[in-house]
Specification:
The chain is mainly beta. 11% of the residues lie in helices and 65% in strands. The chain contains one helix and nine strands. It has one helix spanning 2-23; strands at residues 44-60, 65-67, 70-83, 86-98, 104-120, 123-140, 144-162, 167-182, 189-204. It has an eight-stranded antiparallel barrel. Strand 6 and strand 7 form a beta hairpin.
Length: 205
């Protein structure tokens, strides 16, 4: 009698693990929404074309002033490094400016700058600043035409939007200050600064 009870008890306990194993239901792993989607990476080289409007201004030593506004087209390129949402980079650009019928003009300008930005996935808001240069031209009727290079600084900011993994559009504003320059002409010394608004499209490699 006792032998049968012990045997039945042992059989019951031995069946519990097997029953418990069959009773456990394995739920599929829960993946939070968006966790398997990687954010846009701004790191890498890029090269682009840009165009816009340049509002330049010359202040002469004799107190007179002259506006040198013009259209602008150019190229730009650089490299970005991203750490978390922060983006750091360097960039160069070169632009041709055109304006007819002026005694003084900035025929071209360029810059070498650093950039610091904050990325919101495919949107990048950034500030930029560095060294600026421009090709100044003075045409004094009946005397001579002189060219010289102006050196100064630039600062500004903008916003970029990645339309695809490789195509990025931007809008940017910069202020350039080229200080005082003497072209040795009848116009004398003058100070030149400019404000440049551009839009551009680049290819990210």
């Amino acid at each position: 009698m006792y032998t049968k009870i012990i045997a039945l008890t042992a059989m019951a306990f031995s069946a519990v693990p097997a029953f418990a194993a069959d009773a456990v239901v394995q739920d599929p792993a829960y993946i939070p929404q968006g966790q398997n989607q990687s954010a846009f990476d701004w790191s890498g080289f890029y090269l682009g074309l840009q165009g816009g409007y340049t509002a330049s201004h010359a202040n002469y030593l004799n107190g007179s002033e002259q506006d040198l506004d013009s259209g602008s087209t150019g190229i730009y390129g650089g490299y970005n490094f991203q750490h978390g949402p922060f983006v750091f980079g360097i960039e160069n650009d070169f632009n041709y400016n055109w304006k007819d019928g002026s005694d003084v003009a900035l025929k071209w300008d360029g810059s070498a700058r650093g950039r610091v930005g904050y990325a919101l996935d495919r949107t990048l808001i950034y500030g930029t600043g560095g060294l600026a240069a421009a090709g100044g031209e003075v045409d004094v009727p009946g005397i001579a035409k002189k060219d010289d290079i102006l050196i100064g600084w630039t600062a500004g900011g903008g916003v970029e939007q990645a339309l695809t993994d490789n195509i990025v559009m931007r809008a940017e504003y910069r202020y350039d200050d080229f200080g005082r320059k003497d072209f040795g002409s009848a116009l004398g010394d003058f100070e030149v600064n400019q404000q440049k608004v551009t839009v551009g499209t680049s290819f990210k490699f």
